[in-house]
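Lab notebook, page 48
Experiment: co-folding of the full assembly
Goal: obtain a model of how the components sit together before planning crosslinking
Operator: M.T.
Materials (sequences as entered):
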Amino acid sequence: MLELYEGALDVPEILKRWYEEEAKSNYGAFIPFVGTVRAENGIEGLSFDIYEPILTNWFDAWQAEAKKRGALLKMAHSKGDVLLHQSSYIAAVFSPKRRVALETIEEFVEDFKASAPIWKYDLKNGERIYAKERSTAIKGSGILS
Amino acid sequence: MVTVEFLGPIGKEPIQLDITNLLELSQKLKEDESLKEWLECSAVAINDKIVASKDHPLQDGDKISLLPPVCGG
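Observation: model returned without errors.
Model output:
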């Protein structure tokens, strides 16, 4: 369950819907992680590019891993501009018991930061500036250099 | 003929090249000075699968993508 949206996420709608979708699925634990744009370094917001084919493959591989653990993942992310105090990212895990849910959400979000093909830009003074210093090279980078 | 696309902040239009492996691609792209900084830090995907080594043959019609450092969330 991967959802991509133009602009900011409607957090209450998404969380309510995900909660209701699984309310009768007999999961004992539901852990959502919501990422919100903070005011820092004078930015007006953030902007995102996404390469969907590889993001979908990455997510599908994670969903298969979660299934092995008896868990289910859901994720939503923004494309384009997201302004201060709006949200650009929600990840959630459902599982029968809390330990699997806590471990899975941590591993999933960490691997998301390191591997998901999404590029972040600061919106500052009307410009869109690649957040190079905060970005992580994907494992195996540099083979063409 | 293969297509090479440059994702995210690289900001370069796709190109088509007549090459048969990634070594040739590396040599070709190194001729473009504006790509130098990106080659060092970008991952490479062939037909949307990330590859770990330059020893990779290419087929006619393959799509190669360069993925610079990422930061979702």
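Interpretation: Chain B touches chain A at residues 7-9, 22, 25-26, 29, 39-45, 48-54, 65-73 (CB under 8 Å).
Next step: discuss with group before ordering constructs.
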